[in-house]
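Hi all, posting the design record for the shared folder.

TITLE: backbone redesign
STEP: 1 of 1
STRUCTURE INPUT:
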């Protein structure tokens, strides 16, 4: 079983920054790519960014240049972690943010709320 724990959400003014953390623990051997989704009220969950075990990244167009995904897979304390540095936040970035990890199936974190005020 894989457990994902997110942290770092909160309330920020437009133009501000936040960093989201996601720590994976449990049966993480063989974990390949990880990433972040978000879901705003009344909208579908959308993929924002992914990162492979070797550090290759992809981004959604709307966050390219503002968000940066990174990963620490040194496996200290038998954990793997990803981060999402979010800069120049906009009110439309308000959503619940979820991390995921892929090991033969997709595992999800519980979500963390990000609210950007105008």
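Okay, here is what came back for every position:
SEQUENCE:
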């Amino acid at each position: 079983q894989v457990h994902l724990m997110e942290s770092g959400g909160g309330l920020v003014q437009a133009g501000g920054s936040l960093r989201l953390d996601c720590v994976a623990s449990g049966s993480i051997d063989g974990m390949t790519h990880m990433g972040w989704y978000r879901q705003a009220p009344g909208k579908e969950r959308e993929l924002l960014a992914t990162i492979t075990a070797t550090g290759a990244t992809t981004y959604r167009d709307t966050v390219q240049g503002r968000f940066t995904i990174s990963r620490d897979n040194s496996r200290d304390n038998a954990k793997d972690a990803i981060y999402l540095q979010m800069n120049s936040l906009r009110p439309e970035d308000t959503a619940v943010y979820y991390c995921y990890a892929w090991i033969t199936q997709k595992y999800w974190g519980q979500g963390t709320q990000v609210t950007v005020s105008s």
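COMMENT: The chain has a mean pLDDT of 94.
Let me know if anyone wants the other runs.
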